[in-house]
Design goal:
Elements: H1 11-15, H2 23-37, H3 48-62, H4 65-74, H5 95-103, E1 124-130, H6 132-137, E2 139-150, E3 166-167, E4 176-181, E5 184-189, E6 198-199, E7 212-223, E8 232-235, E9 251-257, E10 264-266, E11 269-277, H7 278-283, E12 285-289, E13 296-300, E14 309-312, E15 328-335, H8 342-354, H9 366-374
Parallel strand pairs: 1-9, 11-15
Antiparallel strand pairs: 2-7, 3-6, 4-5, 8-9, 10-11, 12-13, 14-15
Length: 375
């Protein structure tokens, strides 16, 4: 007893297009279904592969003018038998062009075009330590950067002088090989040549076929005024050489700025601390403040308190890649002596008796003010 054959759905229904659909409409509909139901995108759906195959079968018929005409006239019966061709995914070659836009080289996308083998060289990092003053005013520096340089013996070819690379026999110079799995074409990098498309039979004895050797690149770099600790400078094209004619990478110089013994930098302002004794702060005075343009005489008014700040405008750091400069902020630190001579003690005791104190009758003492605050 024979089993009843499973009926197939209408191909136009499978793709969701009308019978008057054009070739581009049919192709677009298949692209959408292939992307939605491809087994690689639906590993947990066992029915996805069946839906994908059904859509592929429908497209293989409706995209072929002769098969579509037979199907429109006779239906599925018009495609039965070897004479009509049926659905042969191994013989259908247009799938790679359609699916390549969505799934990339795994389906041989690009209509068989050769993949570019040129690769950009790697970037190189170089750490440079500079002085505090050099960061403020800028400088030029000579550095030696370790990187790969073209072999002098073979001029970067990797072959002994007088010889050269030959076309890879495995991939025939394409750098990749194509494997056919059903109706899908899968591209893979050639394992014989590593994707270069060429092999070296007579390797250079100096670089052993690499074409490059470790070397030192001497460069002069200009460091602009206003750089700070951690600033990164980029030198385009001074990194590692590219592969197969690709562009060179870049060189990144990372700056480490040494600390200064007197000045502290905060963005584009400089800060320093000037100590005063009690008499200077009380009576006022003039002090000499060091700056990078020379000493500056700063007038301290009488009664100056500890922690007071004075601003010297435009005596700070130049704005990086801009105009103007920050300020120099002078912090006053009133120092109380820890050891006194007999005369100093006598004078301070006399001053103490003459000056008002916190617990004067006209004012609440400090203790009372604190107690009131917590009541």
């Amino acid at each position: 007893m024979s089993s009843k054959p499973v009926s197939k759905r209408d191909y136009y229904e499978v793709l969701g297009v009308g019978r008057d659909a054009g070739d581009q409409d049919i192709k677009s509909a298949y692209r959408k279904l292939a992307l939605q139901h491809h087994p690689d995108r639906n590993p947990d759906d066992p029915e996805a592969e069946d839906r994908f195959k059904e859509a592929s079968e429908a497209y293989s018929v409706l995209s072929d003018a002769q098969k579509r005409a037979a199907y429109d006239r006779y239906g599925h019966d018009g495609l039965a038998g070897a004479a009509s061709g049926g659905f042969d995914p191994n013989a259908f070659t247009d799938f790679s062009d359609i699916l390549g836009n969505f799934f990339g080289d795994a389906f041989g996308g690009g209509g068989g075009r050769q993949r570019s083998r040129a690769q950009r060289g790697e970037d190189v990092r170089y750490d440079l330590e500079i002085a505090f003053e050099e960061a403020l005013f800028g400088m030029s520096a000579d550095i030696q950067v370790p990187r790969m340089e073209a072999c002098e013996r073979c001029q970067g070819s990797g072959s002994e002088p007088g010889s050269g690379p030959t076309t890879c026999p495995t991939c025939r110079g394409r750098g990749e090989v194509i494997y056919q799995q059903g109706f899908l074409s899968i591209r893979r990098t050639c394992s014989t040549c590593g994707g270069s498309g060429q092999i070296i039979r007579n390797a250079c004895g100096s670089c052993r076929g690499q074409g490059y050797r470790p070397g030192q690149r001497k460069l002069k770099i200009n460091i602009p005024a206003g750089v700070d600790d951690g600033t990164r400078l980029r030198l385009t094209g001074e990194g590692q050489p590219g592969v197969q004619g690709g562009p060179q990478g870049d060189l990144y110089v990372f700056l480490k700025v040494r600390e200064h013994a007197f000045f502290e930098r905060r963005e584009y302002d400089l800060h320093c601390t000037i100590p005063l004794n009690v008499a200077q702060a009380a009576l006022g005075c003039e002090v000499e403040v060091p700056t990078f343009e020379g000493p500056h005489r700063l007038k301290i008014p009488e009664g100056t308190q500890n922690g007071v700040q004075f601003k010297l405008r435009h005596r700070g750091v130049a704005v990086l890649n801009g105009s103007g400069r920050g300020d120099l902020i002078v912090h006053i630190a009133v120092k109380v002596p820890t050891r006194l001579t007999r005369d100093q003690r006598r004078l301070l005791e006399l001053l103490r008796d003459m000056l008002p104190v916190n617990n004067a009758p006209s004012e609440k003492g400090l203790f009372e003010k604190v107690k009131d605050y917590f009541v």
